[in-house]
């Protein structure tokens, strides 16, 4: 999965990532308000922001989607990331709303994307990986290999996967809170963001 940078945009007053993402340099966890972010105005320390903020760029900032789909307006941050667990580019959606599945627009968006690609959905309610049938076993195996390499117990298949249903054709891998911290919020090994390229 590769996406070229279409057009660099300015963040402006958008502070959606300031809330949804963690900032290890400040000890700020995901889904917590950042003390340097002012809603509608932006980051008050933008010029001297830490490396984790400086290297982060959502797809909207890279020119994808319309102006109206700016994350603070849509409630969704789209990011192309390399996940430690899978060692491959993965589309990650950071949802502002814990009940995003109750929104027909957001649910349809997630279902459409996960029908062809493995995606990660991160919301205040939890962390899930939605995978196609052919990818589900690979994703799970890579997650367990990552956990075992760091001395953690692997996750059982039954604990993560749910069967396909009529409204969700692909398996859903629900990540427990303690495993999520190991996979995605490790201060020692932060998530690397994929460099967009043609």
Descriptive report:
- The protein has helices at 16-20, 51-54, 71-74, 104-114, 133-149, 157-160, 177-184; strands spanning 37-38, 42-43, 76-82, 89-95, 119-123, 126-130, 161-162, 172-175, 192-193.
- By secondary structure, the chain is of the alpha+beta class.
- It is globular.
- The protein has a seven-stranded mixed β-sheet with strand order 7-8-6-5-4-3-9. It has a two-stranded antiparallel sheet with strand order 1-2.
- The protein contains seven helices and nine strands; from the N terminus they run αββααββαββααββαβ.
- The protein has one domain (54-193).
- Residues 186-198 have low confidence and may be disordered.
Q: How many strands?
A: 9
Biggest sheet strand line-up: 7-8-6-5-4-3-9
Main sheet characteristics: 7 strands, mixed
The separation of the N and C termini measures 10 Å
Strand pairing plus helix content: what structural class? alpha+beta
Number of domains: 1
Look at the structure and give the mean pLDDT.
77
What is the helix content?
25-40%
Q: What gross morphology would you assign? A: globular
DSSP helical segment count: 7
Helix-strand pattern, N to C?
A: HEEHHEEHEEHHEEHE
Low-pLDDT residue intervals, each spanning 5 or more residues: 186-198
Strand content: 15-25%
Q: What gyration radius follows from the Cα positions, in whole Å?
A: 17 Å
């Amino acid at each position: 999965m590769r996406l070229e940078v279409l057009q660099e945009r300015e963040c402006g007053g958008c502070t959606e990532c300031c809330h949804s993402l963690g900032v290890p340099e400040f000890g700020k966890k995901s889904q917590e308000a950042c003390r340097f972010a002012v809603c509608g105005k932006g980051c008050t320390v933008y010029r001297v922001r830490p490396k984790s903020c400086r290297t982060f760029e959502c797809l909207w900032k890279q020119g994808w989607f319309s102006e109206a789909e700016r994350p603070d307006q849509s409630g969704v941050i789209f990011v192309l990331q390399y996940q430690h667990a899978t060692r491959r580019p993965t589309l990650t959606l950071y949802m502002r709303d814990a009940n995003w599945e109750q929104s027909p627009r957001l649910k349809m968006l997630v279902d459409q994307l996960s029908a062809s690609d493995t995606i990660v959905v991160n919301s205040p309610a939890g962390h899930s990986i939605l995978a196609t049938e052919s990818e589900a076993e690979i994703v799970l195996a890579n997650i367990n290999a990552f956990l075992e390499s760091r001395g953690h117990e692997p996750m059982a298949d039954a604990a993560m996967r749910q069967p396909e249903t009529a409204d969700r054709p692909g398996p859903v891998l629900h990540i427990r809170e303690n495993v999520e911290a190991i996979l995605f919020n490790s201060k020692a090994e932060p998530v690397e963001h994929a460099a967009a390229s043609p």
